[in-house]
Design goal:
CATH architecture of the largest domain: Alpha-Beta Complex
Oligomer: single chain
Distance between the termini: 18 Å
Shape: globular
Helix content: 25-40%
Structural class: alpha+beta
Number of domains: 2
Largest sheet: 6 strands, mixed
Number of strands: 11
Radius of gyration: 19 Å
Number of helices: 11
Length: about 325
């Protein structure tokens, strides 16, 4: 089975999506001249003064919303919306401060909107940000159901950006556990699991509940690490594309993953039910690792201690080596 077969059968072509993003970014051209980072990083930064940069990113919840719709439970997806945005902003060393949300619906439902708002509020509290505005658009001629997205803003001094440029061979790669699928790969997950029924107890709790487990918010732990004595050289939010997201960092190195975190049972279940090859599973899902941090080997113990206070199970998963830009996983 070739890579992406299962995801393609479920209706998503990652190769086509990658090409679309590349052509979109290419068409922007001169519109990106004022930013401090090249395209492709987790967020970009606009300098508004010698000592202040504004980090900006945008993201949504994706087809996880279809699980919420089928279960009639909307109170957690707002957390996902916050998480997918703030987890990107911190990857450049910025502190998230505010978010605006965008809710597109076929028709307004006050009860659903209230539940989504509760999730957004809970996520904002976890991330220690403010929600300063938003938009609810009724687009019945375009939208079937609803879509939820946001744009997040953070602050960082231009001289304190963390881009990965300081990464060196011998550095330690730390993995922070995910809470599950987070908000990626749900088209494939639903295709693999929906015939079981969302009340299925294979995982020890209702399957629908496991699928709605909110994306982990890493803001407090990562900001605590940045403020510590540890030298943080690289930060990577592990989303669709798995550990290949490490290649978004500005470093011409090899990320050798020798001891990956153990994937949760939900990943095994998807692989078995849809006959998904291991390589494709790692291309589509986070496989139990939601965030990575690169630090000098001498700072490993302190970094694990700081992060572990927030996320038990954080540990070293690999090392930086020479050999060109690549991610190499142990078999």
């Amino acid at each position: 089975m070739s890579p992406e077969d299962a995801y393609g059968r479920a209706g998503v072509s990652q190769d086509t999506a990658d090409e679309a993003v590349s052509r979109l970014v290419g068409a922007l051209g001169a519109a990106r001249r004022q930013t401090l980072l090249p395209s492709g990083h987790y967020a970009n930064v606009v300098a508004v003064g010698d000592d202040l940069g504004i980090a900006i990113t945008t993201d949504g919840v994706g087809t996880k919303l279809l699980i919420a719709e089928q279960l009639g439970r909307w109170d957690t997806v707002g957390i996902d919306c916050i998480a997918m945005n703030v987890n990107d902003v911190i990857c450049v060393g910025a502190e998230p401060i505010a978010l605006v949300d965008y809710l597109a619906v076929d028709r307004a439902d006050p009860e659903v909107a209230e539940q989504i708002g509760k999730g957004l509020a809970a996520g904002a509290e976890m991330a220690e940000i403010d929600i300063v505005g938003g938009e609810l658009a009724q687009l019945g001629e375009i939208v079937n159901g609803l879509d939820l997205a946001g744009a997040c803003f953070g602050v960082v001094a231009p001289g304190e950006l963390i881009t990965g440029s300081g990464i060196r061979p011998g550095d330690a790669i730390l993995g922070i556990p995910s809470s599950g699928l987070h908000s990626n790969g749900y088209t494939l997950a639903r295709s693999a699991l929906e015939d079981l029924g969302w009340d299925d107890q294979t995982l020890g709790r209702p399957l629908g509940e496991a699928l709605l487990e909110p994306t982990t918010i890493y803001v407090r732990s990562v900001m605590a690490l940045i403020r510590s004595a540890v030298e943080v050289r690289g930060l990577a939010h592990i989303t669709s594309g798995g550990l290949e997201n490490l290649l978004r960092l500005d470093a011409d190195v090899t990320y050798e993953i020798s001891e990956p975190l153990e994937p949760g049972e939900i990943f095994r279940l998807i692989a078995e039910r849809a006959s998904v090859a291991d390589e494709e599973m790692h291309q589509v899902f986070n496989m139990g690792c939601g965030f990575c941090v690169v630090v000098p080997e001498g700072d490993e113990r302190e970094a694990v201690s700081v992060l572990g206070e927030f996320h038990p199970g954080t540990r070293r998963i690999g090392s930086i080596t020479t050999g060109g830009r690549a991610v190499v996983r142990a078999n």
